[in-house]
Write a structure and sequence with these properties.
It is a single chain. The strands form 2 sheets. Strands 1, 2, 3, 4 and 5 form a 5-stranded antiparallel beta sheet that branches. By secondary structure, this protein is mainly beta. The chain has a domain of 65 residues. The chain starts with a strand and ends with a strand. The chain is globular and about 50 Å long. The model has no long low-confidence stretch (mean pLDDT 80). A hairpin with a 2-residue loop joins strand 2 and strand 3. The protein is built from 1 helix and 7 strands.
Length: 94
């Protein structure tokens, strides 16, 4: 899910873009806006519902469901294998 958080306090650009995904039955979200992003944080279903609903008037047609494919890259190093998770958006352009 992607939407805009109109109320997120920010000095430069107002608000934040919110990206939510589900990983092993846990909902996680990240905030970002032009040059910065937060760490991924967990959120429960009711809090996410309230978060989206609170921002509904400020997201005219911008709340999106986005399919993502998660894959990992395994890179051998001197200390062992480094595993990097990556997410790809699946849309009609791919």
């Amino acid at each position: 899910i992607e939407f805009f958080d109109f109320f997120h306090p920010q000095i430069s650009d107002p608000g934040a873009y919110v990206t939510v995904h589900k990983e092993k039955e846990v909902l996680k979200y990240e905030l970002a806006n032009y040059g910065w992003s937060s760490e991924w944080k967990t959120i429960d279903k009711d809090s996410l519902t309230n978060y989206i609903y609170k921002n509904r008037p400020h997201n005219d047609g911008r709340i999106k469901m986005v399919a993502r494919l998660k894959c990992t890259i395994e890179v051998p190093t001197e200390k062992g294998i480094v595993i990097t998770p990556m997410f790809y958006k699946l849309d009609d352009k791919n």
